[in-house]
Amino acid sequence: MKVTIAAVGKIKAPFAEADAHYRKMLQRHLPVDLVEVRDEADLERRVPERAHVIALDRAGREMSSEAWASWLSERRITARDLCFLIGGREGLSAQTMGLADERLSLGPQTMAHQLARVVLLEQLFRAAKILAGEPYHR
To answer: Which regions of 15-124 does DSSP assign to beta strands (E)?
Structure first.
């Protein structure tokens, strides 16, 4: 299973260091490809064919860390690649949301799109650790 994060905008300080940290830690569990695009039109063009597309949306389904692990395990069984969509400052348009197979939330609060990227990486890392039976902090 290949995981892609397609995000509007280039990551900048202070988020760049955390982004690199989590991608490095994820490498042995769940390698993640990152696609940074200039605008939402480019985002739509970069969605891999036949991927299970997940839009990050404040109104999407929220999950605990254990639920993230269960969700990731289910996705592995289907053997479809995953593509997470992260919008820019204005979020994702209705048109781009229409590409999504599902919507997931990182919580009800509004957060900077660059921070959302770091939080997503952290949750994927935590889920991968849970699935590997390795210790993680609750």
So the answer is: 32-37, 52-61, 82-86, 102-104
CATH number of the domain bearing residue 65: 3.40.1280.10
Structural domain contains residue 138:
no
DSSP 91: B
Structurally, the chain folds into a number of domains equal to 1
Distance separating alpha carbons of residues 11 and 17, to the nearest angstrom: 9
Residue 137 lies in a domain: no
pTM equals: 0.94
Q: What residue numbers bound the domain in which 90 lies?
A: 3-131
Tell whether 96 is covered by a domain: yes
In order along its 138 residues, the chain shows pLDDT tens digits of: 999 999 999 999 999 999 999 999 999 999 899 999 999 999 989 999 999 999 999 999 999 999 999 999 999 999 899 999 999 988 999 999 999 999 999 999 989 999 999 999 999 999 999 999 998 765
- What single-letter DSSP state applies at residue 48? P
Helix (H, G, I), strand (E, B) or coil at 23: helix
